Amino acid sequence: MGQESAEIRTAQPLLQPGRFLPPTLPGAANRKSSLSGHDRAHTGTHPMTLQFSLTNTAATAVDSPCIVVGVYEQAVLGNAAEAVDRATGGLIRQQLESGDISGKAGSTSVLFGPPGIAAKRVMVVGLGAQKSFDGARFQKIHIEAARALGRLPLNAAVSYLTDVDVPGRDAAWRVRVAALASDFAAYRYTATFKPRDKAKPAELATLAFAAGDEAHAALEQATAIAEGVRFARELANLPPNICNPAYIAAQAQAFADLHDKVNCQVLDEAQMAELGFGSLLAVARGSANKPRLIALEYKGGDPDDKPYALVGKGVTFDSGGLSLKPGPGMEDMKFDMGGAAGVMGAFVAAVKMGLKRNLVCVVPSVENMPGGDSYRPSDVLTSLSGLTIEVLNTDAEGRLILCDALTWTAKTYQPHTIVDAATLTGACVVALGKHASGLMSKHDDLAAELLAAGEETLDRAWRLPLWDDYQVQLESGFADVANIGGKTAGAITAGCFLSRFTDGQRWAHLDIAGTAWEDGRKGLATGRPVALLAQWLLDRE
After folding, report:
1. Among residues 176, 233, 399, 500, which one is catalytic?
2. What is the CATH number of domain 243-539?
3. Which of 52, 190, 245, 535 could form a disulfide with 365 if both were Cys (CB 3.0 to 4.6 A apart)?
């Protein structure tokens, strides 16, 4: 059969829909779009998605710049590592005995020019304790392996970590998780850096996984989902002077222009005012960057089928408005459109997978700024639904744009199900940290579907209650509802607020405030919950 089966195909890099920069940046060029002027998208340059393939060639025989094998703690070798060790005269065990290789989970060691095998290098990755090995650690070792490969002067590698046994998981799952983890680790944000010299060192571009034909479909799914994750990360990482509401609208239109089954509709400020988007437009009043409501439609199913709807909070910068945020950490508020990036990324993944479902993706996008016309604490707004809202804090703006978007989505599309995603509350970060997104729904079956999708992809969520007991915290003496519920249960009362605008809908809310980006001065967007939502949609097939 040679190094690769004749039926094994390389997963080709897909469109990089987030690769758009404004004309002021080097290398920018116009892309075809039905939008004009400031709304037009522009292309730039940044890393491509990794190319993935499958191989059935033995680790000792594959001719590659580098192969990757795993060893557990206590000098227990994985199957591929054992074969390589025998072929090289015990080289790996010698390194284990000397302490140069520990087996600690995520540790990496590189052996250059090993005798007896075709590969030029062997990277040995620590798997940790064998008895406690699980899916989360499997994901971790692939992230660390890909990061280590990225530091080496090579453009290709073959990983045999996919033959490591994960309790309860088959080869297809292992390949998909491995591909997504590797692509996540390989991502580099370059959009707003000075272009690098062309004479740059080799970078990892292709990665093969050891697996049989049964993993073909999983690899294709992973490639599509990785495209969606990269879309979301690139969009969220862009600075707010570039990524404003008009820019997001341009990206949506550019993507639609390239896909026959995708349509894009964009409502501007005047159109929303005519329809009665009183809550959303109030949030936008303080900014010179005018709001947009963006709707992407994918017609992959029967024309008579009700669509699934994704709605994402698109606050491109959140100063807090007149309820101004503290200065430290405000720079992270460019990530407050992580919900928009996430649902658009999931939409991209669904289109690339060719799902046989109808899908809509709705993004209300604004900038929340203090200004002479800013909305104020004590203002009473009339939402698109007709419910009036007393503003107690202008920094609780995400729910104010989402409520109008949810109402419009329900009226316009009569969807089968609505799931919204939003970097909504700091309270959710306090409750769940950076590991799990908060999930709220009054529909137990829908909540179970989303939780299962999160477990399958390791893009996990945790369900919080949405009991009516909490609704009393939102009572107002001046309007139908207040926009905050006090100091306690902040994430839950935000969900309760949204629930008032989803009566009669099969609806769930994902609070991704803790999971949408990484901590630290150099922290990047994570692309969550693209994988969760893509899997949930895939499970509906």
Report:
1. 399
2. 3.40.630.10
3. 245
